[in-house]
Amino acid sequence: xxxxxxxxxxxxxxxxxxxxxxxxxxxxxxxxxxxxxxxxxxxxxxxxxxxxxxxxxxxxxxxxxxxxxxxxxxxxxxxxxxxxxxxxxxxxxxxxxxxxxxxxxxxxxxxxxxxxxxxxxxxxxxxxxxxxxxxxxxxxxxxxxxxxxxxxxxxxxxxxxxxxxxxxxxxxxxxxxxxxxxxxxxxxxxxxxxxxxxxxxxxxxxxxxxxxxxxxxxxxxxxxxxxxxxxxxxxxxxxxxxxxxxxxxxxxxxxx
Amino acid sequence: xxxxxxxxxxxxxxxxxxxxxxxxxxxxxxxxxxxxxxxxxxxxxxxxxxxxxxxxxxxxxxxxxxxxxxxxxxxxxxxxxxxxxxxxxxxxxxxxxxxxxxxxxxxxxxxxxxxxxxxxxxxxxxxxxxxxxxxxxxxxxxxxxxxxxxxxxxxxxxxxxxxxxxxxxxxxxxxxxxxxx
Lengths: 256, 181
Known about the structure:
The structure holds two protein chains of two kinds. By secondary structure, chain A is mainly alpha-helical. Chain A contains eight helices and no strands. Chain A has helices at about 5-25, 35-60, 65-90, 95-120, 130-155, 165-190, 190-215, 230-255. By secondary structure, chain B is an all-alpha fold. The radius of gyration of chain B is 21 Å and the shape is flat.
């Protein structure tokens, strides 16, 4: 092992915090509301144990440790993307129409960002050291994009996000934003220790926010709203739109 | 891409995220009572008869030649101030009606993408036009009779929304909205 004592202490603290969060999430029965998030916490704890065992057996600087670290990171990022999708679904799905409208748009946004990530890696030498940070940055940006897109729908249709969900989302968002920034700056800084420190700080912040989210008991689930009929929407909305359009036309006329 | 730009983008994303998460905490949820929905109905455009008089040219014609230049100037400044307040109220009414339209959309089992995107664009267009109209009022180049016509439209829209809400509340058959503007 070539890790410093300070790093080991930090690692142990983080692992304990992750385990405590998992216990708290299970006690709060979060599995029924955000199963992917609970699964992510469980994988985090298992990942720490697995990584520690691998580092003990083959050493911190071995190739096996390198690949194990990045494979774990890949799994974590994919799980976080699933959690973000789950958050958007849990907030918007009670409003059937809004969710039907938002889902394809969010998926399309994800595909566009994925395409952008693939384009950005074009021409990069096929070396894991070069490809992995770019790939991770792309996936982190997909997470941020999905989160902001989903929340924009919530804001537009005045859907309230429960406090604990907001803290979980903020933790995920901050972690992804800092990770994406960190990975973008890596070629300039060319300093692995600094990159790792920033990455740890962002994750520590996220853990604290998830702790805040789960500190208090979760509020009772909200009853599903009573929806209107399709015909009411079909009859009213086009006419309201026509009125708003004519209002804007009148405003425009004032400028002629 | 420079390092500053990367930092700037990260900060923008962060601020946007916090704003989206916490700015909406104060907004009404989609489950609002009929009483709260009534709050969204236009209020300011109800003062239309009083403002219509102000928008007319009779008072100004009467004052010209009778009042001193200073008094006339003061009267015009005061009229513009009231009009500005009124326009502000009108914009608030528009926003409330738009909010109501969004509420109807949010509670609908199926939405039409074209309708929703048009609603979004109209809202954005209104914001721009409203700012420009306010600027014109400041520069004193706003035709008053146009402001009056604009108000009539908001009043009509408010009445129609009221009828729809009454229908929703009482379960009476909805008779439809007149399409004439």
